[in-house]
Amino acid sequence: MDEERKEVLLPPTDIDAEKAVLGSMLKNQDARADVSALLRGEDFYLREHKEIFETMLDMDRKGTGIDITTVYSALKQRKTSDMVGGMTYLSRLMDEAIVPSNARYYAETVSDKSKMRQLINEAEVIRDAAYTQELPPEDILDNAEQRILEIAHKAQRTSYVPVGDVLIENIRQLQELEKNGNDKGIPTGFRDVDKILGGFQKTDLIILAARPGVGKTAWALNVAEHAASIGKKVMVFSLEMANTQLGERLLSMTSSVPLEHIHKGEISADEWEDLSEAQESFYGLDMAIDETSVITPVEMKNKCRRFKQEKGDLDLVVIDYLQLMSMGGYRIEQREKEIAAITRSIKIMAKELNCAVILLSQLSRGPEQRGGDHMPKLSDLRDSGAIEQDADVVIFLKRDDYYSSEDERANIDDSTGLTCAVNIAKHRNGPVGIANLTWIPRYVKFGNMAREQ
Q1: Is the bond preceding residue 321 a cis peptide, omega within 30 degrees?
Q2: Do 187 and 201 form a contact (C-beta atoms < 8 A)?
Q3: DSSP code for 201
Q4: For 340, how many CA atoms within 13 A lie in the half-sphere containing its CB?
Q5: Catalytically annotated residue among 48, 108, 122, 240
Q6: How far apart are CA 172 and CA 250, in angstroms?
Q7: What are the two backbone dihedrals, phi and then psi, of residue 364, each rounded to the nearest 5 degrees?
Q8: 417 pairs with which residues across the strands?
Q9: Which residues pair with 381 in a beta bridge?
Q10: Using an 8 Å Cβ cutoff, are 350 and 357 in contact?
Q11: How far apart are CA 368 and CA 402, in angstroms?
């Protein structure tokens, strides 16, 4: 049955559209410009059509005038004129192109058929790999993701934009800022941090780094919860904690019920009321948590794309954390290259989905081994310098109590608790600086420092 079905199914093609594309290119310079921006030689199903297309592209690059005679001459020089059918076939192609101004439509049809054939080919490769069982399923899946992603990338052509149009968009954004009270970014909810950053900007990759136990996850959850509470659409990927653990933290920070009480189930009547109110505050918020422990950037991007389609937009993505992610296909000794590939993929995801991404990252032991204030530096980012390179913003968290010893008193705000320095060490589009926040460990939350009267 499968063999019979295979004989009946023909590869997706539209030969008439291929002919119309080539005929339009022979007739019209504008058609050549439109088509060359959409198609490659391998997008044509017939070998002779591929040869004619590539010949015209080569002539265009060299500045050679294109008409039926010059193209035939070029084909003869390439010794392929007989293969494509000679002058007779070129004349027939021109007759096929009744409306050259429709060249873009014809080209899009050819491109769509080409993508379908590529997908069929990749599906056959995946099937053969699964049948042979020479590789573990995880490797087959990773390879399949990468190959399908390559098809998508080939299809994505970014058009140039005249500088005048760019400046018009700049003026429009400035008018929106003025109208909305300069609220351009996604606010963190931390007054002094927002003063430096102006909020997180869409398409930005924000690296949030600290030593284990300082509060990276808590800080990111604070920001995510605040963004969702003001109507932003937020996706959180938790590779380390289960979604119920993150839920407990969210309940603690919003209800001011100690996390320890929630863990143990020792809840007073008043605390039950506070927890109930906290729970109700999350109803209707566009905030989702994914607890997949092993995930690749491709899988993450697909989940974000689905979320964006369902919700109509996506403003902020939080990933906890970088060192638990995998690209697949890398050996252990290539970990630095793998980290570089991951950060690059996530930066591309932020740009393509037009959202801000907060990517949590571990630090090396550098801050602990240094004397003085133990403030983290960009060189302390663990595993790869590519993390710093791809990031638009790098934020370090440093709590003095984390490094304090018995004879060295921690930096404590007597009115509210421990303090945490938020060091904005890199800011591609603005100033850097340090903002101080309050750290309240009982509720695993950060807060604004009390203003001095």
Answers
A1: yes
A2: no
A3: P
A4: 9
A5: 240
A6: 37
A7: -75, 180
A8: 413
A9: 363
A10: yes
A11: 10
Identify the residue whose tokens are 């491709």: 298
In 3D, which of 195, 186, 164, 167 has the Cα closest to residue 235? 186
Rg of the chain, C-alpha, whole Å: 29
Q: Are 390 and 297 in contact (CB under 8 A)?
A: no
Contact 243, 289 (CB under 8 A): yes
Beta-carbon count within 10 A of 271 CB: 16
Model confidence pLDDT, tens digit, residues 53-106: 999 888 887 778 888 999 999 999 999 989 999 999 999 888 876 777 788 888
For 330, the token pair is: 């890398």
Beta-strand pair 417-427/412-413: antiparallel
How many helices and strands (H and E) does the chain possess? 20, 10
- First-to-last alpha carbon distance for the chain, in angstroms, is 83
Instruction: Single out the residue of 218, 224, 215 nearest to residue 187, CA to CA.
Output: 224
Per residue in 400-439, pLDDT (tens digit) is 666 554 434 444 444 445 788 888 888 888 888 888 888 8
Prediction pTM value: 0.63
150 catalytic residue (yes or no): no
